[in-house]
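Narrative summary of target 7.
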Amino acid sequence: MEDMRRFETINDYNVFNNHDTLHPLVSVLDLSKASPRSGSKMYFGFYAVMLKDVVCGDLVYGRHTYDYQEGTLVFMAPGQVAGMNSNGEVYQPKGYALVFDADLVHGTSLGRHIQEYSFFGYQSNEALHISKQERKIVMECFSKIKYELGHAIDKHSKKLVASNIELLLNYCTRFMIASLLPVILYIREYWNGLNWY
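Modeled conformation, tokenized:
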């Protein structure tokens, strides 16, 4: 995993994954259309939300390696580097990705709140594993964004796309909290069971 692929723009990422660029600031990709590849480091100059449908190696994100399996959501922010360690094996990417430039959400509700989504930070401890029902919601959000990208850009486009991205991220926040709830309840039960006297 020594090579570094740099994706400065949405178009760079689309070209690498065999997709047309319908909008310069946002794209929804079916990663199964990409060519087979081996693991490498990747620099992202934009936000990315990826739903992986294949086990293809360990995800190296920041200085840590993360649990990365089928049905996992991974989040990246502009300027971050992530990579796949596939131990030199070639794999066929499968899954979906939403990528969007910070300029897309500038001046929108999402732009004012994007920093509140902690899962975009390197300090996030693990990728988000989602249920079948949660996956359905993610795919519906991706579908709405892709639908909007298939239409001519008009005065409503930016707001509709940004609103749907914000809806997706709000659902992901809910999924993240729900995945942590059993741990929180266990810790609370443990602390309540301690004899303090």
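The longest strand covers residues 47-52.
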